[in-house]
Specification:
Oligomer: single chain
Bound molecules: iron/sulfur cluster
Order of helices and strands: HHHHHHHEHHHHEHEHEHHEHHEHEH
Structural class: alpha/beta
Strand order of the largest sheet: 5-4-6-7
Strand content: 5-15%
Number of helices: 19
Shape: globular
Helix content: 40-55%
Radius of gyration: 20 Å
């Protein structure tokens, strides 16, 4: 349990009060203690002390969590529950079949979907690069097109390198991630100082490489004093768990949507937002639970007659199988002349 040893103090601080169970969607859907934050913290503690041994049920319980961080908002002891779960995964020996395939695909093909790698490099001007990320490159090309179109309308011609996966799914499933240095090398070789991306997971992963500034596209656009033509229709902004709770980016997308004609909030928003279940590793291994989480998000928007707007390609990819959704960059593309 070499990785969990580093979280011994945090584990010991858990009082077992169970407040973290109040708003956990996997507990709501799965119904057993080990579907909750507390249950998973106890499993990690048991693994660390040797009171329990790893078996299939332990592996599944620890992996059946999108690391959304919602439970941490309710914990009076400020236990980093999702970090503990992610760390416990690093000490597991068994790998779920869906995760093995995804990891192999990242390492062999450079993307988590097993697609043949496509060249993405394109020349540009200046020292700004755009990183599309695997979801936009291989599964939702409309998002990459929208982002490049928005940047073009701002007279920016960002450089693109031949992309490989930033390795975020590897980290989430508990594997070592050697991808960021490889990607950073390509970007540094191209002389880049700033990397823009619409993918919050890429911001989280790449910002650990201190060779350049990494900025989420909504934060960049919110600084640009854009003149937007308002969009018709009712929009509801959904906070991605990664963009919101992990990166703390709540206001820039709201500012942009306000400029684009306004939007509605979900009942639970910002730090308290529901998770849509769109984390790639979670969704690949537990599609039924991930689908139910998406439906919980989409049902509220449907009741309001609204289109969901997200600022995370992972959420967009997942939610669009369950209803009407736009990425905020698509909204910006429509509103910018
Ligand atoms: S709310 Fe915090 S202290 Fe209470 S059981 Fe959950 S993790 Fe432990
Ligand atoms: S991170 Fe999310 S799904 Fe996982 S235990 Fe916490 S609230 Fe539940």
């Amino acid at each position: 349990m070499k990785h969990l040893e580093d979280m011994k103090h945090e584990l010991m601080c858990c009082t077992g009060c169970g407040y973290c169970k109040q708003h956990c969607q996997t507990l709501d859907i799965g119904g057993t203690e080990t579907d909750s934050g507390r249950g998973r913290v106890f499993l990690a503690y048991g693994l660390l002390t040797g009171e329990i041994t790893e078996d299939q049920s332990v592996v599944e319980a620890l992996q059946r969590c999108p690391l959304c961080g919602r439970c941490e908002q309710d914990c009076p002891s400020t236990i980093p529950i999702s970090d503990i779960i992610q760390t416990a995964r690093r000490d597991l020996t068994a790998v779920l079949p869906a995760h093995r395939k995804m990891a192999d695909d990242i390492l062999d093909k450079g993307n988590p979907f097993g697609e043949q790698p496509v060249p993405t490099a394109r020349p540009g001007e200046g020292e700004i690069a755009f990183f599309a990320g695997c979801v936009s490159t291989y599964q939702t090309p409309e998002l990459k097109e929208a982002a490049l179109s928005v940047l073009e309308k701002l007279d920016l011609e960002p450089v693109m390198v031949d992309e490989i996966c930033c390795g975020s799914p590897l980290e989430n499933m508990g594997r070592d991630n050697g991808q960021p240095p490889l990607l950073a090398e390509r970007l540094a070789e191209a002389g880049m100082q700033t990397v823009l991306t619409a993918c919050p997971s890429a911001v989280l992963t790449l910002r650990e490489t201190p060779r350049f500034t990494v900025q989420h596209l909504t934060a960049f656009l919110a600084e640009q004093n854009l003149e937007l033509v308002p969009l018709d229709g009712v929009l509801m902004y959904h906070d991605s768990s990664v963009l919101g709770r992990k990166l703390g980016i709540y206001d820039p997308p709201r500012q942009l949507l306000q400029q684009a004609g306004g939007f509605r909030e979900f009942t639970e928003n910002r730090k308290l937002a529901l998770c849509c279940g769109g984390d790639l590793a979670f969704q690949a291994a537990f599609p039924d639970m991930a689908g139910e989480m998406a439906r919980q998000v989409m049902d509220e928007a449907r009741e309001q007659g609204a289109v969901v707007v997200t600022a995370d390609p992972h959420c967009y990819r997942h939610l669009k199988g369950h209803g009407e959704v736009l990425d905020i960059i698509q909204v910006m593309d429509r509103c910018l002349q």
